[in-house]
Write a structure and sequence with these properties.
Strands 3-9-8-6-4-10-11 form a 7-stranded mixed barrel. It has a two-stranded antiparallel ribbon with strand order 1-2. It has one domain: Putative cyclase (Glucose Oxidase, domain 1, 3-Layer(bba) Sandwich). It is α/β, with parallel strands linked by helices. The protein has helices at residues 9-12, 94-98, 105-113, 132-139, and strands spanning 2-7, 16-20, 28-30, 51-58, 64-65, 80-84, 102-103, 118-121, 143-146, 160-166, 173-182.
């Protein structure tokens, strides 16, 4: 990422900055085009996909995140699911990117059955090459939010809304500002 000031108030009568960034840096959204040859660009995704009731699942100390019966009562149909693994504490290290928990196929099927809008996580990815979880969820209209932080703050919230708006751009992903609002 490169952020540079290009205009100065005292000289140019206004301030301006230029941002050069990869779409998958920091907290970001993966659109279907990221992994699917005929996938949609971010700009083609419905804005309603990025705002909705949220639920956070505490899945710490699980190298592979499988479906568990207790999730049935925690995840509402059409919601936004956030996975709190605690792995964000390793952000910036090789361990964060190379040795992170992964989502199992049975958990993906649970998300599909619940018609979840988004799956967010404090991980760089829900899987590893050849990215079968990415491909499966994105092909079914479940978009991915990666590199979230501070999810532990939501564990005691009985109800909250997630707002995760990407830029409306013709790209395979987008930086996103993701917030939760207590209801």
């Amino acid at each position: 990422m490169e952020l540079a000031q290009t205009r100065w108030l005292d000289r140019d009568y206004h301030n301006n900055h230029r941002l050069q960034i990869g779409m998958h840096v920091g907290t970001h959204l993966d659109a279907p085009l990221h992994m699917l040859p005929s996938g949609q660009y971010v700009a083609q995704l419905p804005p309603t996909s990025f705002i909705g009731p949220g639920s956070v699942l505490e899945v710490c100390n699980q190298p592979v995140i499988h479906w568990q019966p207790r999730y049935e009562g925690l995840v509402s149909p059409g919601s936004i699911v956030l996975l709190y693994t605690g792995h964000d504490r390793f952000y910036g290290s090789e361990r964060y990117f190379m040795d992170h928990p992964q989502v199992a196929p049975d958990f993906c099927e649970f998300l599909l059955a619940k018609q979840v809008r988004l799956l967010g996580m404090d991980l760089p990815s829900p899987d590893a090459p050849p990215f079968s979880v990415h491909k499966h969820l994105l092909s079914q209209g479940i978009y991915l939010l990666e590199n979230l932080t501070n999810l532990e703050r939501l564990l005691d919230w009985p109800a909250f809304e997630v707002i995760a708006l990407p830029l409306k751009i013709w790209a395979d992903g987008s930086p996103a500002r993701v917030v939760a609002r207590k209801l």
